[in-house]
Amino acid sequence: MKKLNRIYITALSTVLLLSACSKQLDLKPYQSLDQTSAIVTAQDVQVTLVGAYNRASLGDLYGGGVYIYADMLASQTLFDWQGTFQTQTDMVNQAITIDNSSVNGTWYAGYQVINAVNNVLANISKAGTSTNQDRTQGEAEFLRGMTYFDLVRLFGRDWNDGTPSANLGVPIILTPTTSITAASFVARSSVSAVYAQAIADLKDAEAKLPASNGFYANKYSAAAILARLYLQKGDYADAAAEATTVINSGAFSLNANYVDEFPNPGQVHVDNTAEDVFAIQFTPQSVNNVNFNTMNVFYASSDNAGRGDIIIKDSFVAGFETGDARIGIYNVDSGGSLRVDKFDNVDGNVHVIRLAELYLIRAEADLRLGQSGAAGSEAASDVNTIRARAQLAPLAVVTIADVLTERVHELAFEGGFFLYDAKRTSTANSQVNVGATPAFSPKLVFPIPQVELNANPKLVQNPGYGQ
Amino acid sequence: MKKKLLSFFLLFFCFSVVFGQNKVITGKVTDQKDGSPLPGVSVIVKGSTAGTQTNLDGVYSLSVPDGTKALVFRYIGYKEADLPINGSIVNAQLEYDPKQLSEVVVVGYGTQKRSSITGAITSVSSKDIENTPVTTFEQAIQGKTAGVNIQAGNGKLGQDITIRVRGIASINGQIQPLIVMDGIVISDDNLSGTSAATNPLADINFNDIESIEVLKDASASAIYGSRASAGVLLITTKKGKAGTAQIEFGAQYGYDNPSRHRKFLNTTQWLQIEERAAVGAAPLDVANGSEPDLATALADDKAFVESRFTRYAAGSTNWTAYNTDWEKEAFQKAPHQQYDLDFSGGNDKTTYYFGGQALNQTGILKGNSFQRYSGRVNVVSQISKTFAAGANLNFAHVYNERLSNDDAFSTPLQIVALSPVTPVIDPRSGLISGTPPGASSNYPVYYDPLISVGNEYIHTGTYHTIGNIFANWELIKHLTFHSDFGIDQTNQNEDSYANSLTYRNTGTLNGSGFNDETIQVHFTTNHYLTYKGNLGTNSTLDGTAGFSFENNHFTTNSVSGQQFPSDAYKTIASAALINAGSSTQSAGTLVSYFGRANYAFKNKYLVSASVRADGSSNFGINNQYGYFPAGSVGWVLSQEDFLKNFQPLSNLKLRASYGLTGEAGTAYYQALGLFSGTAGYNGAPGQRYSQIANPNLKWEKTLQTDIGLDWGFFNNRLSGSLDYYNKDVSGMFLFVNIPETSGISTQLQNLGKMYNRGFEALITSENFVGKFRWSTSFNVAYNKNLVTDLNGQQIQGTSDLNWVIKGQEIGVFYGRQYAGVDPANGDALYYLNTKNADGSLNKATTNDPNAAANTVLGNAQPDWTGGITNTFSYKGFDLSFTFYGSFGNMIYNGGGQYMSANASNGFDNQTIDQLKYWDKPGDITNIPEPRLFYANGTSASSRYLESGNYVRLKQATIGYTFPKAMLAKVGIDKLRIFVNGSNLWLITKYSGWDPEVNADFLASSAPYNLGNDFYSAPQPRTITFGINVGL
Questions:
Q1: Confidence band (pLDDT; 50, 70, 90) for B127?
Q2: Rounded Cα–Cα distance for residues B93 and B69 (Å)
């Protein structure tokens, strides 16, 4: 072979290979979409909304963390903590550190929901028919309003504690993130501003949502959370009004037996009960392992796939009236420890709010508004409806103290009420003790996560956390 | 003998008669040592390029022109002989010269003579690593390469091993060096389906390796451009040699044992500390309102812990009936066997090497094993005078019986948390404690990892094929074109199953399992021209230019199932519930152009320059290409006239290099803003915002400087090198914390700056030569890593104390500083370390861990690493041993908050030192008062930080080679028997199992999670007996 030929052959094949290879640099991901093409159609808006529910079901948020962490702060007379997770041990000891990863988990999950919602709302015009747009917008606002309400309850001082318009709440973000700019660094709004945002979202959601919407949020989900919010805020007239909306809707009914609210037919998904106004859904088909039922993790014994870190004190159950059917949910496990069996189904839903609470909200609101608690009154009737289901005799006259006791026996361990009720029933001069700690102690407010303070210089730490 | 030979030839030369015409010279070339014929020896007419090669019998025949006075005989591995022509027969006896073998060094896209190298390259040859009783080549070269820090994370087999060339090259980029085997890039991507990384390099049989060159500075490595910042390892596998076929057989058999144990409390001690913890908790129960008064609290707490004693003592109130040493139960006697069979040979046209290996290693931890079956075929053939082609092919099957991560209750060493009062076999059920249907929901204190043995598994089966075909074509004289196409393909299956007996650990009724299939195909093709030539008499020039293309593609499939009909059903076909399944793909491409030129003048003045352009699919269209130039110079002082006559000095070379290398990041699609479809809810599909875009993302750059000195004295009997380097990293990838209120927590940005500076020294010495030989090789390296700019960020690892902070090393331990125990009340104390007005730190103490500010507590990376190898031989005996040392780093025991928690964090058994707890006012101790569940002193702090300095006898071998004469009678060419050992002896003050540690689940989650111990198993101590037979 001639030498010149060799060079030609080499040069030609080189050029061919080169041109083939350099075209190979523009690769697109297989599992993800570029943000510019992710939300185009009505279907895209809907799946983004579903993504917001997915984020809401994270373990540190409505997977249960947002409720159980609050109760852990108030657990000293209720249960014995035998867990080894330092983050939870610190909560039980009312000594949360600023680097507590569960606290940061709740914060971050909350804002993932809010960003997902903001993506939905920014694209709401693409959501198809006006009916569909309303439904989509309502669900999105419901999730955002509820999330702001729970974030401000955990990370800010209680509405009753000082001046809500001066106390720091959490940053309010209402637009979706596409890039990081100066506008991405947002300071904390006041507690009252966050409440106002939550109320605005929930009210609009109530107005736009249909009465029935499968396992997703409906009109009454928004009304129910509003009722809870107004009660926390001491706005009793609105609380009673929203509670009435839910109770009178006829869409929900109390289960015949109390324990039926907490079904555990094994490790399978169970649909909402007739009593659930809104619940976060869990299935064995978890999309990924960050979406899990945190209530089950800590409350359930290892008989039921939990860690069994929480043992209910005998003294707590001893406080129930004789014959109270609700004691039936407290049982000794195979290892001899007393457990609350509300969360035994590892794939069970987290009951965010259920009808019984709304009866109790209305009863308390009525009484606080000065209405009668005598026999035949709405308050007495509401409380006795709950008592009747617990197979207890009706009370002739109902007092605020009766309602609060009923709340403990009816709703224990479900919604962080041990902490939140202690706070909202306290005043600056007369604080309920949470364990040995006054309800308005800075120890009972979550710290702003250290990592967030580092990332955003506009944030101010809560008192008592070394700032 | 040599002198005699020389005078003999000289004699002939003096009396030679010169004939004025062409003549044919014939002769035979033999090995001076044993007279065996040498085939393939180049025989060249002195002063010309005309020549020939010897045939299989070592015989040649060469027609030489009139007036030819001498012939030159050249053969790799032998000293060159220059013999006068005297008559028509010139026989040559060549002297074996082991140094000759290292004369040629493999460099990027070529080879170079060691003497002309101007970069920093460390070489390891097959002799240094053959038959080492370890699993992977990284372990085999540990301590034998200056500036290359190799560390295993724990003693589990087949797991990730870190290689750090001159420090950690990046925070978020690729920090393992680029591995190139026979010219093609080998993927060392971790394909593990769990959060404990596995090691794909463990698939390589290192007895197939001829040499490993570590390219450390820019001059050597910048030709690999964007992936060279962490260094490059060039692996060359064995090739056949022309001549008689060689058959080598090797066998080793031995045992692995844990190299160290850790002491925990016995029954009496444990009962004592737990009783005391109940007493310590009582006042706090009263203080927080959960108990009405101290007397009640004391009684309640005592009753409570004693009820637990009974529970954990298998229901017996005789708590002292058992005294179980659970730590020992985690381990097993572990046989270790290995068999090798190699064939090699060839003729002057074609050579071959066939290698095979079977390795079967049992882990020291129950349930752990590693098997490797590998084969290799290397063939090269000179098809025509100008055209050669060949192929290298390696196929391997690895079967790894793995264990749970270090943070899982089921990992064997978490067994130490179990109470000594608990019997191994529950007398009530006759089963291993905690096994259903016996007491299992809360007995023993935690899930018993022994239940997992045989009832839970994760098996990784890998088929790994690495191969390439190549051709070299001499286009014109001095100019060769090289092409190769290579593929590195891994098919990996992970099969995991946990049956119903493991329910307490898995939380899943009736068993659960998953099965993952991963296929990785890494395709490489290289095409380049090489020029080697002389420019006049005094100067030589060689150069390389070409391009390459790579495509790395991953495909994964996985399925998870639950609810098996019985424990006899183990595959997911039988699972009633398919609870998860997925398939994914990802790919990255790299297009590269490269070139290098080396120029030498009088073999004294050396200049080298290289450049690489890389285009990567990892970046956006605007920043796809990066350019990486490097240059170096060398000055061989020993060739200068003023030193030439200084006899003791045999080599002195000064070299300096400067250049740029890059880092393209480890994640594909990392610059894009993405939504991901992994956000379904109750069966409805969903998407979520998963990655924030960074359109400005570009290459990370490392500017490297190296100044080195190579020296040799006494004909290189004493030789060495010294290097100083500086690697300045800029535009470093950082996952910068952005406000989580944006819905995303981090963004990848080119923000950071960092450097690694240090020096390396290597000294080799042949202390004795002759019948008794003793040689020593010593290397030491110092590296200082410093993060110089993080744009105001502080990055926290996912471990307790590792951070990345400006002005500190990567992974520095940063947190609360433990101040011991308040003698008055037994409280754990921490230094406040808040800033005083004058800027100094407030060293007052507090019992509130929250009040204590974080402070720098120590470094997680060693400053000094080094190794020393001594080799002795006398007659047939040989002995060698290697010590490895690492100094300057701390280790954090993340398990301390459970195992060394003064019984303040549950019922975990405690390390023996916890007995020195504070008991009464006035006690001076470092261990706080036990307070059950009150976390007294268990917060992450310097309490659990210790020095990680150690020196270890890494390897030792003693062998005997039988005399040839004796073996010839039985037809054997070579026979050696030996005893091998690894990790034989350890000197350290570290109180944990092993200072060579980094907990698997942390190591794989962030590169700055460094120096963490978490129930991590010690390295195995291995002793094997072996035999090598050559035919």
A1: confident
A2: 18
Residues spanned by the domain of B77: 2-97
pLDDT tens for residues B555-572?
999 999 999 999 999 999
CA distances B828 to B458, B817, B934, B935, Å, are 41, 11, 11, 9
What separation in angstroms does the CA of A245 have from each of A191, A218, A356, B141, B508? 26, 12, 14, 75, 41
Amino acid at B287: A
* SS3 (DSSP) at B548: strand
> Residue A120 is part of a domain; what is its CATH number?
1.25.40.390
Does B317 touch chain A if contact means CB atoms closer than 8 Å? no
pLDDT at residue A336, as a whole number: 83
Cβ within 8 Å of residue B762, ≥6 positions away:
B122, B146, B720, B721, B722, B777, B778, B779
Compute how many other C-beta atoms are within 10 angstroms of the C-beta atom of residue B275: 18
Between B5 and B554, the more confident residue is B554
Residue that is written with structure tokens 């130490």 in the block? B416
B32 domain residue, yes or no? yes
Question: What's the predicted TM-score (pTM) here?
Answer: 0.82
In a domain, A74, yes or no: yes
A202: domain range? 40-217+442-457
Burial of A11 (0-12, 13-18, 19+ CB in 10 A): exposed
Contact A460, A156 (CB under 8 A): no
Confidence of residue B687 (pLDDT cuts 50, 70, 90): very high
Tokens representing B953? 């006898």
Query: What is the CATH classification number for the domain harbouring B67?
Result: 2.60.40.1120
Residue A85 covered by a domain: yes
Q: What is the DSSP string of B32-81?
A: TTT--B-TT-EEEETTSS-EEE--TTSEEEEEE-TT--EEEEE-TTB--E
Note whether A51 contacts B679, CB cutoff 8 Å. yes
From CA A164, how far away is CA A395, in angstroms rounded? Answer: 36
Q: Which pair of structure tokens corresponds to residue A352?
A: 């965010």
* Token pair 């268990």 in the structure block, residue: B938
B725 assigned to some structural domain: no
In a domain, B679, yes or no: no
Using one digit for the tens of pLDDT, what is the confidence trace for A13-29? 777 776 666 677 778 88
Residues 513 through 532 of chain B touching chain A, CB cutoff 8 Å: 525, 527, 529
Q: Considering only residues B360 and B51, tell me which one the structure prediction assigns the higher pLDDT.
A: B360
8 Å CB contact between B884 and B938: no
Taken in order A232, A236, A242, A246, the sign of the CA dihedral is positive
Query: Which residues 6+ apart lie within 8 Å of A43 measured at CB?
Result: none
* A-B contacts (CB, under 8 Å): 297
- Interface membership of B475 toward A (CB under 8 Å): yes
Eight-class DSSP state of A168: B
Spans of chain A below 50 pLDDT? 1, 287
Comparing alpha-carbon positions, the chain A residue that sits nearest to B695 is A179
Q: Is residue B47 part of a domain?
A: yes
The total number of structural domains in chain A stands at 1
Q: In the structure, what pLDDT confidence band is assigned to residue B99 with cuts at 50, 70 and 90?
A: low
Q: Give me the number of domains chain B comprises.
A: 1
Residue A41 contacts B, CB cutoff 8 Å? no
Q: If you count DSSP H runs as helices and E runs as strands, how many of each does chain B have, helices first? A: 14, 52
The confidence score (pLDDT) of residue B663 equals 87
pLDDT digits (tens, 9 = 90+) for A333-360: 887 889 999 999 988 999 999 999 999 9
- Asked, for residue A286, whether it belongs to a domain, the answer is no
The residue whose two tokens read 């040859």 is B125
Top residue of B675, B699, B1015 to mutate, by most chain A CBs within 10 Å, is B675
Whether B586 sits inside 8 A of A185 (CB atoms) is no
Per-residue pLDDT at B51: 80
Chain A residue with minimum CA distance to B417: A84
Q: Is residue A430 part of a domain?
A: no
